[in-house]
Amino acid sequence: MESEIETLLSQNAVPIINLGKGIEDVAKNLRKALSEKGYALLINHGISNEKIQTAWKYFDDFVELPDEVKLAYERSKAPDAENHGYVSPGMERFDGRTPELRHAYNICKLQDKFLPEQQLPGFTSHINALVGDFNELGRFILRALAISVGAPPSFFTDKHSYMLSDDRFSLTTLRLLYYPPVEGEDHGSCIRCGAHADYCTFTLLAQDSEGGLEVKLRGSERWERVGHLPGALFINCGETMAIWTDQLYHALQHRVVVPDQVDTRLRGRHSIAYFCHPDNSALIDPKELDFTTNQSINGGTHNAYDIAMALAKGAYAHNYS
Ligand SMILES: O=C(O)CCC(=O)C(=O)O
Ligand SMILES: [Fe+2]
């Protein structure tokens, strides 16, 4: 029996956007959700739940492999290294201190030589198919977002032409995540994923259960539990989009805590995040969208890559010293 916990969803406080309703309607609802709250849940999004679950199953099998095999796929620890690769528990700490209990696989390259195809036959083609679905959905959202700010529908898609097709030109990433069960009461000094806002344009997130996802709403200092709507995708606005819209859209602070509820804590949690980034060279200029601004980072207009790197260095400054 699932513990009854109060969540934003149980209080009917979550914007739920039906993507089957036509792009103008989606644009209107995204504008309201991302400006007021910074997030929403998407239903009728067209990504098969079964495909998502198969990806989690592959990742479970990966996590079970001996450490020396997993380490061969590890993401480099160098400061400005590529993001692609396996991130073992404890390797990343958003706040630089608190141990983070998760396995992650950042996928930025889709060819089998960069993936554990040998250990997990079929992984490459499965991930390629899933990425195809996320890219298609991502492009639909980008068109809706352009409409939502009164720009031509292709405004954002024109600046997102390399999403997971060539990682030399885009930071777009599909990230598989597994948070192991947490046994015992003494988990106060650990977190599943530390507080942060994503750097990208927006993130799409699938989760398999209520497992501790919390958000800080615009203008609030309080962490609130989101809740789980089976099959829905969570969308949150990233820092790049907040800069682009001169903060009309709110980059959502979020984290994943180790839940106090024993049944939730003893259950592993799976999620998949699709971080949609502009092309590295795309200039993020709010004035192009008729937002007058004096808020772009360090004064001038920057390209998407420089913005993401500046944000990463801020978030992971402890890794660079
Ligand atoms: O697993 C989750 O629900 C969130 C993960 C996340 O926020 C991230 O990887 O940026
Ligand atoms: Fe995140």
TrEMBL record:
InterPro entries: DIOX_N (IPR026992), IPNS-like_FE2OG_OXY (IPR044861), IPNS-like_sf (IPR027443), Iron_ascorbate_oxido_reductase (IPR050231), Oxoglu/Fe-dep_dioxygenase_dom (IPR005123)
PANTHER family (alphabetical): 2-OXOGLUTARATE (2OG) AND FE(II)-DEPENDENT OXYGENASE SUPERFAMILY PROTEIN-RELATED (PTHR47990)
Organism: Drosophila yakuba
Occurrences of domain Fe2OG dioxygenase (ranges): 170-278
The keyword Cytoplasm appears for this protein: no
Signal peptide positions on this chain: none
GO molecular function, one term: metal ion binding
UniProt KW keywords: Iron, Metal-binding, Oxidoreductase
The name this protein goes by in its record: Fe2OG dioxygenase domain-containing protein
Similarity field: Belongs to the iron/ascorbate-dependent oxidoreductase family.
Highest rank taxon of the organism: Eukaryota
SUPFAM superfamilies (UniProt xref): Clavaminate synthase-like (SSF51197)
